Amino acid sequence: MQELGKQQKMVIGMVGLPARGKTYISRKICRYLNWMGFKSKVFNIGNYRRQICGTDCNSNFFDPGNKDASKARDECALLALNDMINYLRNEGDVSLYDGTNTTKQRRKLIMETLQQKFSEVQVFWVESICNDEDVILRNIQLTKLNNPDYVGKSSDEATQDFQQRIEQYTKVYEPIDMDENISFIKIIDIGNDIMIYNIQGFLQSKLVSYLMNLHIYPRPIYLSRHGESQYNVGHKVGGDSDLTQTGLMYAKQLGKYFVQELEGNRNIKMITSTMQRALRTSNEVCELLGIEYYSLKALDEINPGICDGLTYQQIADKFPQDYEERKMNKLTYRYPRGESYLDVISRVEQIIFEIERSRLPVIVIAHQAILRCLYAYFHEHEVPEIPKLNIPLHQVIKLVPAAYYCKETRIKIDPMTGHWEIQDEATIKKVKSFLDL
Amino acid sequence: MQDCHKSQKIAICMVGLPARGKTYISRKLHRYLNWLGYNCKVFNIGNYRREICGTECDKTFFDSKNEQATKARNECAQMALNDLISFLNSDGEIAIFDGTNTTKQRRNMVQCSLSQQCQNVQTLWIESICDDADVIQNNIRLTKLNNPDYVSMNPEDATKDFLGRIRMYEEVYQKIELDENLSFIKLINIGEDIQIHKVKGYLLSKIISYLMNLHIYPRPIYLTRHGGSTFNQENRVGGDCDLSQQGIQYSEQLGKFLLDEFPTQEKRNQIHCLTSTMKRATQTADIVCNILKINYLQLKTLDEINVGICDGLTYTQIAIQFPEDFAQRKVNKLTYRYPRGESYLDLISRIEPIIYEIERSREPVLVIGHQAILRCLYAYFHRNEISEVPQLEIPIHAIIKLTPAAYYCEEIRIRIDPETGERKQIEEYLQYERVNLLTKKKSYILL
């Protein structure tokens, strides 16, 4: 969805004490914006501090009375700010400034620096406030103990030091005030209370709607294609064909998988498209589980327009120019009278909100192009990769949101034997990317 | 999308001093929710008070120390509430309780009644706070002076009395506080500042997002179909054909018309022009925007309804080739989905994001679209019943100008002759609406 009018570059500044979910929120926003087509990047002040001051900083480093350390920390903040501005000047659309920014003075400094160096930019602040001790402790355990700052320390030591660090920040914390004259959203206690002030523009509006839907319930998301269809066998695109015998067997085996996986829990949400092959698959699964499904047109497969019902070979023969165009840019190419992957992303956005919002497990039974778009969002793939992502038939992708990423498991289900093969992927890959923040 | 979420009933209760836009918000929400397909109704306490106590109530009636009047007012509130509860307990899905509800005591009474007497209801409180004297004065001028309460008074006396009424309420006004344990949203100074507390759920989140985009800038919205196409001439559906010769002429005349509507280039530059990705629409937009020297935005979401397997056929051919479908569509044109295509309900779902964008925009909007799409858009702005959508008249070679006013949209329709460029106003809907308001639909009487 595009804005009416020109979209300005934007800086999103985070505010909050340590362990309040600022990095979690920045990364979620970054992922959402990138997926929507806005080039975004997170600039984490902590990373700059680690690079410049080293990782052996105990809580004393964060004492506001410690003049040398304060100076060093301010320098890191400004370095991150400069990099952020450069990014926006070049290819970036949105920068996220992930740091505590807990004093009015710091926020004023940032606003003034931006005004000086890049006045055309819109600035939007996101403050995360949390007073729930349990949530804070859990945050520390989930995200800080793996932090490079605490390598080699016991978890008790690390927790204690981190809590002291929080106290240093608390001494000087000034929550955002309306007299600072900045646009902001305050998220209190994971969205129990939200305050919004002076939002301007399309993107800020969308972000607020997005943030209102976030929560930290670790509910699983299951993605699966419909069982094998007749068109699949004939290598044809489009159509509204029925399942083959094999496809039907997959549907039944899928049902059995979920019966075991969900252990009698009927409190789940299942969504599918309006196309026969998906409906039949969902029917089989729901009969075994004893639940209902919802069919949404938004989940229908990509519309191949005039190529509907043709094989890829026939398309190459009848529409050689289009065939070439699609090969070159599969993301933006739009089938004549049909859709492009970008159209599908736009179409599927409401589903993303729906899944984010849900605190119940979600099962999506849909189609290849659709699942590529959904999967890319949850698994943080670059948008240009979307049309090539591997989403084969007869496989369930299970995504469980963890601290900063989704833990992915793929379950291959053999339609004939019902045998499952579990592939546990990506956890290692994601831990690495956290350090690269 | 809404079927997933129809399990709970919803009661929305307004809070705020008089002239703070409560009825405006109630009616906007009512329109939006009905357009989405929910059975929604507004219960305005003022209307109940007028029916029971009459319309000759000056400001002393609203004095909290006036025991008899207070008793009468409480009874009216209770009656409105009872009707609301009956509505939700039968086939109503969303009810809006439009009244001041300015004391904790009143809110507590309402909240308790709702939780005790309604099965499975979620409540949302919307408090509108405004301290901008100009805005309040403007509100009074726009909406109160036509109020039945002031039918016999001159505007100056009416304004004085109304300001007096507001003072009566101010004496006992208690803003919503956290200890009342209510789910609420506070809109302060027309959404400059918004506070949200304990709002969860699909529909409530949607309502919040919708409210965040509202404003009171009276910008015009122009709706027009693309110029006549070759398929239009042959009475065919679907397709992606070019403009006919007449269609090209219309586009040129449309451009000239808009040049007159927006006399300076500065004003023209403010127009947001939206169109679909289909040739007949983009060709129209090309010509119009060339004349206006502005850009336009192509959105696939504005593409005409997808007629699936009937694409390219005439209505007669459809009747012959797919007689069952033809009959089904006649019976229920709203829900009927073309095989491999869409239904009007799918369309409404599809264009919802456009509604948000148009609501949010403070500058003039020009939509060059297609018949089914414009029926859906028009129905939203014009508060038509959802069942009427597939039959709404959106003629070719005509432009509809909608200007949001206090509680409705002023509408002007102008037919533009493609050859001569002659402009003829078809009907003025404003007059029609006023008659309806006063005689037939009492619930929409301006407060």
Could you characterize what this model shows?
- Chain A: Pfam families: 6PF2K (PF01591), His_Phos_1 (PF00300).
- Chain A: Residues 5-218 form the 6-phosphofructo-2-kinase domain.
- Chain A: One of its GO terms (molecular function) is ATP binding.
- Chain A: Substrate binds at residues 225-232, 277.
- The complex is a heterodimer of chains A (437) and B (447).
- Chain A folds into two domains: 10-212, Rossmann fold; 221-429, Rossmann fold (3-Layer(aba) Sandwich).
- In chain A, the strands form two sheets. A seven-stranded mixed beta sheet of chain A has the order 9-8-10-7-11-12-13.
- Chain A has 437 residues and is of the alpha/beta class.
- Helices cover 44% and strands 16% of the residues of chain A.
- Chain A contains 15 helices and 13 strands.
- Residues 431-437 of chain A have low confidence and may be disordered.
- By secondary structure, chain B is of the alpha/beta class.
- In chain B, the strands form two sheets. In chain B, strands 9-8-10-7-11-12-13 form a seven-stranded mixed beta sheet, with helices on both faces. A six-stranded mixed beta sheet of chain B has the order 2-3-1-4-5-6, sandwiched between helices.
- Chain B starts with 8 loop residues before the first strand and ends in a 7-residue tail after the last helix.
- Residues 430-447 of chain B have low confidence and may be disordered.
- At the A-B interface, strand 6, helix 7 and helix 13 of A face strand 6, helix 7 and helix 14 of B.
